[in-house]
Structures are given as structure tokens and as C-alpha cells.
Amino acid sequence: MTAKQAQAQRKRQLKPSFHWLKPVLALATMAGSVIGLTMMLDWMQDPYQWPVQTVNIEGEFRHLQRSQLQNAVAPLAGAGFFGMNVSAIQEQLQNLPWVEQVSVRRVWPDQLSIAVREQQPVAYWGEKGFLNPGAQVFEPEQAVDLPALPRFEGPDGYEQRVLLMYRQLQGILKPLQLSVGSLRLDARRTWRVQLSNDLTVEIGRSNPVDRIARFVRVYPAILAAGSGQVMSVDLRYSNGFAVRRQQVDTTAESTG
Q: pTM to 2 decimals?
């Protein structure tokens, strides 16, 4: 080894090594990124920096009040544009009795858009509930009087079956210009219907649609067969039916 090479080797040995510095810098960079991201997220979550200025509620309402929806949303929207929990807002509104469906979304930079579909009752169900077109039961917090709706009764879980029977009966009764006022399915799965003229029809359990179709065919003959208002018809016979009429008070008639 020459003197020059020996001198170069001594310089390399005396030169400090900085290989340990690379992982330290990498860790420092990562830590700085995490801290910066955390600060940015905290800034975004600050409701004073990103307030929700406008809540738009869309929908056609007869029983819901926009103020009711606004009051339900306000506490959750107060968390700010980024801080509010959209899923929690949707669940909060979905739990309102007259709400059938709701969708919630953010609209940049400071708005909340809410679309609400109100329940459309097609019938009363039981004492306090209503049935919607999808055969789902809902119960308003306050009593609502909707006298034009029919009244349904039935065991839990039979809502769809009762609604289907109602729709079938409506079509069958149309030639008589009558409609269903109330429809009941009892625990023994026996049907009873009260028509719009207050006539009660005991349908029974077997072949209810066929029995009502037979009733429609013979109804003109029932009206013509005797005096007194027809109060009820019992179709629970294999070869016929029973008719109960309101008795006419001939004494009252003769005296006026």
C-alpha cells in the first residue's frame, strides 16, 4: 500500500457516519404528517369553522310539520358540516311515526339536504295504528281522525294478507257500487266484512273470494226476497246462506 492510499484510508476511518440519520428523519416526517393530519381533522370538526348554514327539507306533507323535522335535525346538524353524523340524522328522522322513508346528504360547502316521504295510510289497523300501501303498520303519537279509511283487524304478521283480501274484495264488490268499510280476520282465520251500507257479511274461513263472488251474484235476489233492511248475510254454508233482516214495525207504520 502506498503512502497516498494509507492516507486516504485514514481519512475514511475518521469521517463520521450518518446512516442512522435516515430512519430518524423518516420517523420525524411521519410524526409531523400525523400531527398535521390530526390538526386538520380537528379544524374540520370545529362547528364554528364549518357551520351548517342551511337545512333544506323536501317533501309533500299532510301530517308532518317542517318545524318538527327541523327540531329533530337541529341538535345533530349543530356539529358542523364535517362533524355531523349523517347516518344518525337519518335514523332520527326515520323514527318519526309519519316518516316512511328519508335520505340525508351534505351539500358543499354549508348545506344539509333532506328528502322525506310521508306515510300514506290506506287503512286503520287495530285500535291505534295505520297500514301503509306496503302493509307496514305505524302508530302516530297523537290520534288522527281519517273517517274515509277502512278499518282492518288481524293477528300480528297477517297485515299483508288482510290488505290483499281488501283489494280483492273491492274489485268484486264494484258491480254493486259497494265498498269495504271494515275487514276482520280473527284468530281462527275467519273473515268478516262490513260493507259501506253497514251490511255485515260473515265470509268464513274457506274460499273467501269465491264466497264473496257468490254473494255479489245473489245480492239483488236477497234484496227482492223480503221486506225489511238486510242487516247481515252469513255465507258459511256449503249449499246456501243465511240472511238476517231488520224487523219492520207495522204498528208504527200504520200510525205514521
A: 0.76
